[in-house]
Amino acid sequence: MKVLSQAVFLRAAGRPGDLPPPGAPEIAFAGRSNVGKSSALNALTGRKALARTSKTPGRTQTINFYGLGDAGLLVDLPGYGYARVPQALRAKWGELVGSYVRSRASLVGVVVLVDARHPLTPLDRQLLGWLGEARKLVLLAKADKLSRLAQQQTLRAVGAQLPRDEVMLFSSVTGLGVEACRDLLEGWLAAGRENKRPPVKGI
Questions:
Q1: Three-class SS of residue 127?
Q2: What is the CATH number of the domain that holds 63?
Q3: Taking CA 184 as the corner, what is the angle to CA 169 and CA 54, rounded to the nearest 5 degrees?
Q4: Confidence check: pLDDT of 1 > 60
Q5: How buried is 29 (Cβ within 10 angstroms: 0-12 exposed, 13-18 middle, 19+ buried)?
């Protein structure tokens, strides 16, 4: 059985004090609001409704934890950037996510989703910089919206700008990149269980 297919919802954290104690290795998912994080989680786990999807930016308002048995956890972070919610709530989200990323000893890597049609926007770059030295896999989401030529051109361009991070084309609609992403993330989790640093391209 594939590790990610074991995913089950464990709990939601709406404030730093709600975070579960760190333990098994965790992989977090981050991205701009409405970039497709929930769809990616559903595709990677092979579950149609594990994470709730919505066309409304900012639907995920808590940090949601999904257990993978003894293998680790997947963590869905609130969408980054603009969302149609009050400024006070956005500030609360920023405090919550910042506390998690800065202090989470069991975090082994972050999957950052960007829109393949408009990659590395100022908000994307701000998020990548904010994540600092965390291990990162950048998924060029919604790649099915591009031609094959444009996909390869975008992959090369983004990879050249992020030489220390893994970059993949990804589509939750067609399945492009889903299996390769699963394999990489399972490797990260395995390394985390052995107290090793997950491998990253170029390092």
A1: helix
A2: 3.40.50.300
A3: 55
A4: no
A5: buried
